[in-house]
């Protein structure tokens, strides 16, 4: 401002400062919104909740169930201090966040970190790069994610519109499961016996099961809408073991996003969503308030041989009246209409629904699917049995337990985190890098199973050089029973280039791959008795977990790890761990 400013009259100085502020403040404001750091404090604590007429103490964040919503914009930095006040070891995973060069914050216990022990804390620190939409966070150790979960809402950058109708209101809808029993006791008992764990007692919508016989109706989620308005429903399947159909009676839903990637909009009465997946839908309320209440319902899609929780979670869609009369709920006076669902095992519906999900693949939102491939992998996913040790008393035939495997390898969790062992070159005795690229022996994967269904075990990983273009075919098997498996890959989105029934044909099927507008997701359902093919670019250095998002199958070993090496440039290398990284 110099000496000329010092000799100005007072009012001129004031005018000059106002002009200066008008000119410079928008720049400062823009800079501020270019990247905001958003701070959260998550206290892991026990809290009493009553569901199904029964009160129990559950693990929560800040005493909330479901847990608090994280809201950020694309490009923001998110810093979450997690303090563990409960008896269990805890780790949290930010499901679907790419974690570009921030793998230490990914969260799966014994993969990227040792868990946070009782009385300890850890700060998760990451930046959301090139993503916008709905994701979610959940516990990633044992079965604690039964109650430890919540939404992540990533808004577009400021002044950037959605590529669809701007909604009047946005509503997160999280599907879950509820056990009357303590779920840690449920999985511990199953681990000891080697048999399947006990089923959940109810499914929930935003933590509420809906009207259950003899239980108070206050356990019901209600969505009140204004006639003619458009609502964005952010659907999240946080259930432990069930893929879910979701529907609202007498209303169509328009799918506009899946796993925080915009898709070509399509209309449907029913959404199919696997555990781990997120789907954004537009709900357009009817132009006039109907004289009815509409059930918002979620029930399982189940293809496996085992029993499943066959309950339906129910909420209510109610229309707001324009009159000034009482605002009390009209559910008792108005008829309740319910949606019609497919059969619980309708795999044709599932295949058709997943085929409708396509990337926008336009100039603003391109589908960067790898057109060529450096490495091809063929992984069988399914069940088997493993031999228990002599001092165990497993209740399977000849002291065996049910197991699950990828390429016949059931994954053994290490005692220290794989990422630490990899980063500090201390892999000896922790993991090996000989995970098979193909099944150890070929058989008719979806036909009659082989006589020997024993699985091998080990802590094995695949090593990929930086920027490897990967094609991975995931093949379901009929061992014990064909079943849909929602496979989740940490650290990446992948493109679903093909899927089909029966056994994958490496000669014929690749000719039909969609390399133009395939769905881009972080979790894909491997069809029951079928296969799915995905491609991804290994552009994120670190150790990345891949596992079935049916928690029972993860517990049984249906998991493995990818190790992506550093690139040559500085911005292609994983930085050192934070100083507060938990110790084992």
Structure overview:
There is one protein chain. This protein has 584 residues and is mainly beta. Helices cover 11% and strands 37% of the residues. It has six helices and 33 strands. It has a six-stranded mixed beta sheet with strand order 10-9-12-17-14-15, with no helix packed on it. Strands 11, 13, 16, 18, 19 and 20 form a six-stranded mixed beta sheet that branches. The protein has a six-stranded mixed beta sheet with strand order 22-21-26-31-28-29. It is globular, with a radius of gyration of 25 Å. Mean pLDDT is 93; it is low at 1-7 and 11-32.
Structure summary:
Pfam families: Cu-oxidase, Cu-oxidase_2, Cu-oxidase_3. By secondary structure, the chain is mainly beta. It is built from six helices and 33 strands.
Rounded mean pLDDT score: 93
- Please indicate the percent range of residues in DSSP E strands (runs of 2 or more): 35-45%
CATH architecture of the largest domain: Sandwich
CATH superfamily (homologous) name of the largest domain = Cupredoxins -  blue copper proteins
**CATH topology name of the largest domain:** Immunoglobulin-like
Shape: globular
Helix content: 10-25%
How many alpha or pi helices?
Answer: 6
Total domain count = 3
Structural class: mainly beta
* Secondary structure tally: strands: 33
Strand order of the largest sheet: 10-9-12-17-14-15
Q: How far do the termini sit from each other? A: 57 Å
What would CATH call the class of the largest domain? Answer: Mainly Beta
Radius of gyration: 25 Å
Which stretches are poorly predicted, pLDDT < 50 over at least 5 residues?
1-7, 11-32
